[in-house]
Design brief:
The two termini are 35 Å apart. By secondary structure, the protein is an all-alpha fold. The protein is globular. It has 20 helices and no strands. Helix 12 packs antiparallel against helix 14 and helix 15 packs antiparallel against helix 16.
Length: 494
């Protein structure tokens, strides 16, 4: 179980880093949402859709390949870096020639300049050092965290400065550009590794990546085709609002849940040859993931109007129902990633591809059938299907890679992480009456939510949960963490 402890410690460290980084980003969002108009966000959203497609076409799964490998050599890292660089540069050239067509499709010549700027950013980031993969394998995240925070701070400073001076969409573009270049240059200071062109084991890596690439394309289509449909049917203001709601709701997934659970891939790989330890790791990692994801998801869903009022301002309130729908996506994404992580551990990338094809077909076949007359209804159908498919995939994987008995145990031991947050919302709505300005109301609701949730979890643990091995281990780990923190605090105080 020491692997679990190390993985959870790394998860907590990465989650703290993401919270800090996103706190900086939220300051930017608070300002930009009040300075810029929805049309500005819509214009950048169109460019982001195109940029995202190019990015996913270069996601060969090389990092997952290197993380799951028993041993990694410099040649393997260099090969991964070379393959990614070749793909990025080749696709960037294709995008340069495709830009006029894209601009003509949307009827906005401003997209030409925006896309050219983004292409130059992609090409420059190809030359970043891949040395941080060694830090990730060693669970040494401090250098990576420092670079990420530094790049985010620089990005926000540039974005806010341009927004306040010029008050246009270039604030969003140049902010991203500055952050990306800062991280690229900084990668050479976080690890002494220096890359060089190499294709030594390209065939072996491509046998893994060959299936990761098409599943990435379908995965991107599954998550972004809805935005493309909105961009094609509605105006830039509606697209901007839809894009911002989706982005804001996705922040916890990308900046808290994903980083917090990233080390679990390494730890699952270490115990994949032991059925007993793998089952325990699988159960514990899901409990930890849901303890982070579901409370955030249900809080944002229940108090969507208040969250939007605080972070985006009054002019965005009419879109709060879209935000509430996307809040559910936090849970759906966390469930799906828990399952797909197992496929990666056992190098079954082909199965991920199959999951993406099936998910894409079901989601968008249904969406085309029900139509898109109402953006809100469209959002709820899209997210609801994602949640259903993710749950079914996870159950299938649990049955196939653990056992029927462990799946039953898995469902029973993880059920409190869903029941307790729902009960917390009910208690908060009954006992708490918010008042004052929106930010005060959010604080008045948020603090009791955390306190009540913690109390319910503590009582449940003392009465029932401590009887299970998974929860007992998490309880012991939490107690040790608190003891270490208190000892350090007392030492510092003296």
């Amino acid at each position: 179980m020491s692997n679990v402890k190390k993985g959870l410690s790394s998860s907590l460290l990465l989650m703290a880093e993401s919270i800090l980084k996103k706190s900086v980003g939220l300051v930017s969002t608070l300002i930009l949402a009040r300075v810029l108009i929805p049309e500005d966000f819509g214009l950048v959203a169109i460019a982001t859709i195109v940029l995202g497609l190019l990015d996913v076409l270069t996601q060969t799964g090389s990092e997952q390949y290197l993380l799951r490998a028993d041993e990694v050599t410099d040649d393997m890292v260099n090969t991964s870096w070379t393959i990614n660089g070749i793909l990025r540069i080749a696709l960037s050239i294709i995008l340069i020639f495709s830009t006029p067509t894209i601009s003509a499709y949307y009827g906005d010549p401003r997209l030409n300049t925006i896309l050219y700027v983004f292409v130059s950013m992609i090409i420059l980031t190809c030359f970043g050092s891949p040395g941080n993969i060694y830090h990730r394998r060693a669970q040494n995240y401090i250098p990576i965290i420092k670079l990420t925070i530094f790049g985010k701070v620089i990005s926000v400073i540039v974005a806010i400065s341009i927004a306040l001076i010029y008050q246009n969409y270039w604030a969003l573009i140049l902010g991203q550009y500055t952050g990306a270049i800062t991280r690229t240059i900084g990668s050479y200071f976080t690890h002494p590794f220096r890359p060089r062109p190499c294709l030594t084991n390209a065939r072996e890596q491509w046998s893994f990546s060959g299936w990761m690439l098409p599943q990435g394309i379908f995965g991107y289509a599954r998550t972004q085709l809805d935005t493309f449909l909105v961009s094609s049917i509605f105006g830039k203001s509606e697209l901007g609002s839809y894009h911002v709601m989706k982005y804001l709701a996705y922040i916890p997934s990308s900046q808290i849940v994903a980083p917090a659970t990233a080390p679990l891939l390494v730890e699952l790989s270490k115990v994949k040859h032991s059925k007993e330890y793998f089952n325990k790791q699988f159960n514990i990692s899901f409990i930890v993931t849901m303890l982070i994801a579901f409370p955030i998801s249900i809080f944002m869903f229940s108090y969507s109007e208040l969250v939007i009022h605080v972070f985006l301002g009054e002019k965005w309130l009419k879109y709060d129902n879209i935000f509430a729908a996307f809040a559910i996506l936090i849970t759906a994404s966390a469930i799906l990633h828990q399952g797909l992580r197992v496929f990666i551990v056992y190098a079954h990338a082909k199965k991920i591809f199959y999951v993406e094809i099936i998910s894409f077909s079901i989601i968008y076949g249904t969406l085309f059938f029900v139509g898109i007359d109402s953006i809100e209804f469209f959002a709820y159908v899209r997210v609801g299907l994602e949640l259903l498919i993710s749950t079914l995939v996870l159950l299938f994987i649990s049955l196939k890679y653990t056992s029927v008995m462990n799946t039953v145990r898995f469902l029973l031991t993880s059920s409190p992480v869903f029941i307790l947050p729902l009960l917390t919302v009910y208690i908060c709505n009954y006992l708490v009456t918010p008042y004052g300005p929106p930010i005060s109301q959010l604080f008045i609701i948020g603090v009791p939510f955390l306190i009540i949730m913690s109390m319910l979890l503590f009582v449940s643990y003392k009465l029932i949960l401590h009887r299970t091995e998974e929860w007992r281990y998490l309880g012991q780990l939490t107690t040790k963490a608190i003891d270490v923190t208190l000892k350090r605090f007392n030492f510092s105080a003296r």
